[in-house]
Amino acid sequence: MSDTRRRVKVYTLNEDRQWDDRGTGHVSSTFVERLKGISLLVRAESDGSLLLESKISPNTAYQKQQDTLIVWSEADNYDLALSFQEKAGCDEIWEKICQVQGKDPALDITQDPIDESEEERFEEIPETSHLVELPPCELSRLEEIADLVTSVLSSPIRREKLALALMSEGYIKKLLGLFRVCEDLDNREGLHHLYEIVRGVLFLNKAALFEVMFSDDCIMDVVGCLEYDPALVQPKRHREFLTKTAKFKEVIPITDSELRQKIHQTYRVQYIQDIILPTPSVFEENFLSTLTSFIFFNKVEIVSMLQEDEKFLTEVFAQLTDEATEDGKRRELVNFVKEFCAFSQTLQPQNRDAFFKTLANLGILPALEIVMGMDDLQVRAAATDIFSYLVEFSPSMVREFVMQEPQQTDDDVLLINVVIKQMICDSDPELGGAVQLMGLLRTLIDPENMLASTNKTEKTEFLSFFYKYCMHVLTAPLLANTAHDKNSKDLQEGSAKINPVCPDNFQTAQLLALILELLTFCVEHHTYHIKTYIMNKDLLRRVLVLMNSKHTFLALCALRFMRRIIGLKDEYYNRYIIKGNLFEPVINALLDNGTRYNLLNSAIIELFEFIKVEDVKSLIAHIVDNFYKALESIEYVQTFKGLKGRYEQEKDRQSQRLSRYRRDARSMDEDEELWFNDDDDDDDGEAVEKSRMEDDFSDSYGKYIEAKKGAANGANGANNNGKAAVIPPASPALTPNNSSTSSVKTVALPATPVVKTALVGLVDYPDDEDEEEEEEEEEEEQSPRKRPRLSS
């Protein structure tokens, strides 16, 4: 395969003249635009990241060694090496390098060494070009063998050669034979040397050696060698644990012998890596990468083999859901499925998809619904882990199952309600399980992972389902622990503060904090559904009871819930808060906190600062009108003075707007009053001036009456606004700034009976019949100046 042929390790020479392993990947030669030339690229096999990008320079001396190694120098004191898994891959890249430099691929070096230092540098690795000669496998030579194995670990090239030598001569089995001899003779010195040898062989990091060492007939002897660590006074008893203590449980008999052998091997190798071998140092962290890969691929193979055995999995789920299954058996079945799901995490994404779809088809979710409601804590914990794997894999799959459940009268049987109740009833003092379940619930109700493209109605349908059937279960502990404050909304401002019974139990407080965290998430992401729920249940009032809790973290959770609501700047919420006087518990908490400078103090002030900065007018007016006297003494921040300032500014704006509105509407009254006053005071004045004023008023008044008649007729027609719009702008009752308001008033008046009382602020006139009579009288000799004022 080309992947295997191109598989390489990248090494760099450090300051101590030792080769450092930079990682394993796959090499290619391609043109790189940025470097403007053919370059060597190595991408890591683990994550595809770039391990090496090196332009093939015409003047760089490349050296081919031992058929699988290419070495060169990038710059002063920076040497690089590529160690190929296969000779064919090395030859292929070597030919490309020679092609770029115009050299003969038959040569082992592309440039002649220029100076002695380079010669020395390249001579360092060729020392190991010959095969490593292993001493005879005898008891008397164990110390020599141990020294050899330990000495090669610092050199990648010598490690490669030693691994080849160990494989070619069947050396491993001979060493393990010596182990049995040493143990029979109780030869502690020999056993200590064998520990160093076997540990060193593992650090050679060679899969071919692992295949031999971890075979059925060798692995227990390997474990035995690793028991005799020279640093320990007494050897460990790992073999005793693996053979007697650790029991392999077949919940359903496994008929495939190869599968059974693979499971045994994987468990033992994992034990060697996790328990026996010491944690590798920084310099040894890459030595066991192949061991990790060995375990990884074993797990993949196990999952694949189990998944293909349909009879086995079908039997597992049949027994899991069978009421007749004994509790002990069911516990083993659940633990098996949990382990099975854990192994599946090693699969590639497409294979993992197929794996979980297989589980879904076999009925994993109905089975979980049964076992999560059981009393056995171990079973519930394992079922929770399985559920978490499913939710992380596909929240939509879980949601689809939940909504397809038959809607029985008892909501307790619903899977989500079972999860919520398990969260509420978690017996762990630290609520570890509840925290995990809360995270899963959040994932399920998160609209961000509801795929609109797949199912456009998923979000609406699921949230409607959740709020109808599940939300009351989630909020039940919250409502139960705040029930004593039902009548607090009837308290008058300044009355004695009621301290309802708040949960003083730390575990209950933690649970309520988790529920509040989830509700706060809902406020942010479920605008419509949660708003309706909060209004119907008066939920915010109940939550704010927790501001009295002695647990500050719970009071902060309650405050955070209110802060998210206010942060939406939704007037429906604002009116709800104002109507319920829901700032009172927050302000009481601030005042009770006194001069302490703590998180609660800062969080409450930040709430009011937000209202001030965002200029939420309705809340500002409510706070200043009701609570400013209690808050005005707080001067270490300017927040409350700022709220008062905003309030005053808005009040001034309203006053100016009202006065301008009134002035515009009453302008005709004022003109008439001035005219009458002038008429009374200046009866003996100049006739010319009086005549001019009479003519002006007569003209204006006549136009206004015509406009009123037009508006009255228009009220019975189809286009009120059109009729109102013909009122001449010269009329004192209409100004360009207030034309819409005046037109509305003008149109609306004739449609209703008018009470003849003095009107304040707006000009008003009797109905159209009176106006028509007045117009007929106006044709007679009565002068406009002598006509009495309407509604005066």
Topology (elements, then pairings):
Blueprint: H1 2-5, E1 7-13, E2 19-32, E3 37-44, E4 50-55, E5 62-65, E6 69-75, E7 78-84, H2 87-101, H3 116-124, H4 142-152, H5 156-168, H6 171-185, H7 188-203, H8 207-213, H9 219-225, H10 238-245, H11 257-276, H12 289-308, H13 310-321, H14 327-344, H15 349-362, H16 364-371, H17 377-393, H18 395-404, H19 415-424, H20 432-444, H21 458-469, H22 471-481, H23 506-525, H24 527-537, H25 539-544, H26 552-567, H27 571-579, H28 584-593, H29 599-614, H30 617-631, H31 639-665, H32 667-681, H33 687-715, H34 720-724, H35 739-748, H36 768-778
Antiparallel strand pairs: 1-2, 1-7, 2-3, 3-4, 5-6, 6-7
What does this structure look like?
The structure is a single chain. Helix 17 packs across helix 18 (395-404) and helix 18 (395-404) packs across helix 21 (458-469). The protein has 792 residues and is an alpha+beta fold. 59% of the residues lie in helices and 7% in strands. Residues 113-129, 485-501, 679-694, 711-769 and 771-792 have low confidence and may be disordered. A 7-stranded antiparallel beta sheet has the order 4-3-2-1-7-6-5.
- Structural class of the helix and strand makeup? alpha+beta
- What's the total count of β strands? 7
Strand order of the largest sheet: 4-3-2-1-7-6-5
Question: Could you describe the largest sheet, including whether it forms a barrel?
Answer: 7 strands, antiparallel
- Ranges where pLDDT stays below 50 over 5 or more residues in a row are 113-129, 485-501, 679-694, 711-769, 771-792
**Measured on Cα atoms, how large is the radius of gyration?**
44 Å
Family: Belongs to the SMEK family.
GO cellular component, one term: protein phosphatase 4 complex
Domain Serine/threonine-protein phosphatase 4 regulatory subunit 3-like central: 144-649
Domain PP4R3 EVH1-like: 5-101
